[in-house]
Write a structure and sequence with these properties.
The protein is mostly helical and 102 residues long. It has helices at 5-26, 42-55, 74-88, 93-101.
Length: 102
């Protein structure tokens, strides 16, 4: 299967937009994620946020398929998310999944 450069570039641009939104609108500086209309629960907001950041390679450079950019703050963000999750307790299965996946 041939990769079409224009398609790849558009995909990278879209991932970049979603990534930027996740870190500036959904993720909060205290390690939490905003609950949106798309989330059924607080746990969903965390689970989806953490999974997205992981899938885009934010926490692991080797998984970063869409950019060569470095994110030196990613460990601090990860630590804040993990601390927030642990401080809330992990009774909600989605919160536990988010914490386990970190």
């Amino acid at each position: 299967m041939l990769k079409l450069p224009a398609t790849c570039e558009r995909a990278k641009a879209e991932v970049s937009k979603m990534f930027h939104w996740c870190l500036t609108q959904s993720y909060q500086s205290d390690g939490s994620f905003k609950v949106s209309d798309l989330d059924d629960t607080l746990g969903d907001a965390y689970r989806y946020g953490v999974w997205f950041l992981q899938e885009t390679g934010y926490f692991n450079r080797r998984q970063r398929f869409w950019t060569d950019e470095d994110f030196p703050e990613s460990k601090t963000v990860r630590d804040h998310i993990e601390a927030k999750l642990k401080s809330m307790g992990l009774g909600d299965p989605a919160l536990k999944e988010a914490c386990d996946s970190l």
